[in-house]
Design a protein that fits this description.
The chain is an alpha/beta fold. The protein contains 16 helices and 14 strands.
Length: about 450
């Protein structure tokens, strides 16, 4: 099937062609006709499958077919909600790229960490498509600088991540601002029972499209686990990067402090690296990502929240320096590589503390991940497991200084630099943590 068979406008087909695409991906082939037909849609697809174009292309087509009135400022006609700043910027780029031959379609992305006033000025000029994080959007609603009463299409992108980050109350507040008669599109890498309950509350007879096995890891990604003692993780990572001559590596840690600490260690080892997380300013995050994509830095160390939505073409290597507490996050992490038909490698550095987390991941993806001990980094069987407390153990052993300021209770995740995820209920005392204190490393 070609894009021309999907019924899109010539201007959109030209933009797609200029990007070098000739055939739609499976999610695009199924989603685009459904959106054009006006259906509510729940789209399930792994990262890197082209789902952003799956909703931006038909959205642009629909708005171009029904131009906004010429009197007064253009109302917001389409709202795209995303969990993070990086994803907002990425989606906005896709809207601009595919809509550049549609001269009267205006779009804007609004998120925290950057100035509020420039966003207000842009909104005053009129916007057709608004891409927003929930927290900053509600700030505009509270200040009456945005009017959502004319929204025709709502898109919830990365819905699973928004719920993980605790955005459900904010989503409900946004829904209350929208007209009841509208088209609803929800996209998610995974469909939990909570997401289905959310969809039941605002969607109308949605069409369900799933183009990948539920909670599956991308088939093009080669996965392996390197067992290692917790104190030797940094040395092993530096060894893998230098010995393998890895040119571009995305590394995941659990905490912001851990990301900073690891990036500094790599720099001292002669490896160009930088960290990206919620405590960094938006300009600093943008600069780090730009330099990573351009090859100016070799390693980008990220937390889960900061890395959500990063779109890096043909990223060859992803490393789990620390396994995530939530198994689903493993699927999201390694999905940064193996995108759009490219192959990739995902390496997890696993110490004795993380065996329960590893078993959770293997149960989720329904496969055992290959284990490979790196020569010179054999594990010491005398080392016993220690509990993982809020992600502070498992290699980095970060402990927050007692003088560290507490976050304001009223701050929303992802707004004004506060991108910390909310831990799922009951995880602090989970079986994974309790068991790890009684176990030595064994496979």
């Amino acid at each position: 099937m070609s894009f021309s068979a999907l019924g899109l406008r010539a201007e959109l087909l030209l933009a797609v062609s200029e990007q070098g695409y000739t055939e739609p991906t499976p999610i695009q082939a199924q989603a685009i006709p459904a959106v054009l037909a006006g259906r509510d849609l729940m789209g399930g697809a792994q990262t890197g499958t082209g789902k952003t174009a799956g909703f931006t292309l038909p959205l642009l087509h629909k708005l171009a077919e029904q131009p906004a009135g010429t009197h007064g400022r253009t109302p917001v006609r389409a709202l795209i909600l995303v969990p993070t700043r990086e994803l907002a910027a990425q989606v906005q780029t896709s809207v601009f790229t595919y809509g550049k031959h549609l001269p009267k379609i205006r779009s804007l992305s609004v998120y925290g960490g950057v100035g509020f006033h420039p966003q207000v000025q842009a909104l005053k000029r009129g916007i057709d498509i608004l891409v927003a994080t929930p927290g900053r959007l509600l700030d505009h609603v509270a200040q009456r600088t945005v009017d959502l009463s004319k929204v025709q299409v709502l898109v919830l992108d990365e819905a699973d991540r928004m719920l993980d980050m605790g955005f459900l109350p904010d989503i409900r507040k946004v829904l209350a601002q929208l007209p009841k008669q509208r088209q609803n599109l929800l996209f998610s890498a995974t469909f939990s029972d909570e997401i289905k309950r959310l969809a039941d509350g605002f969607m109308h007879d949605p069409l369900l499209i799933e183009v990948a096995r539920r909670n599956a890891a991308a088939e093009l990604i080669e996965q392996r686990v390197c067992p290692v003692d917790r104190e030797r993780k940094k040395d092993l990572l530096a060894h893998l990067i230098t010995e393998g001559n890895w040119k571009q590596v995305l590394v995941f840690t659990r905490t912001k402090h851990g990301a900073n600490n690891l990036a500094e260690k790599l720099v001292k080892s002669g490896i160009r690296a930088d960290a990206i997380h919620g405590n960094k300013s938006q300009p600093a995050r943008t600069r780090a990502l730009t330099e990573f994509k351009a090859g100016k830095i070799r390693v980008l160390v990220a937390t889960d929240i900061a890395a959500r939505g990063l779109d890096i073409d043909e990223l060859p290597h992803v490393v789990n320096f620390e396994l995530p507490h939530v198994a689903n996050d493993y699927v999201h992490r390694i999905g940064r590589t193996g995108r759009a038909g490219s192959t990739g490698e995902a390496v997890s550095l696993v110490c004795v503390d993380e065996l329960s987390l590893l078993r959770d991941i293997e149960r989720l993806i329904k496969r055992e991940i290959r284990k490979e001990i790196v020569p010179g980094f054999e594990i010491d069987p005398r080392i016993k497991a220690e509990p993982i407390v809020q992600g502070k153990r498992g290699g980095a052993q970060q402990r927050r200084p007692s003088s560290a300021p507490h976050k304001a209770a009223g701050n929303r995740p992802g707004n004004r630099g506060q991108n910390a995820p909310r831990q799922p209920a009951g995880r602090a005392g989970s079986k994974s943590s309790r068991d790890s204190g009684r176990r030595s490393f064994a496979y």
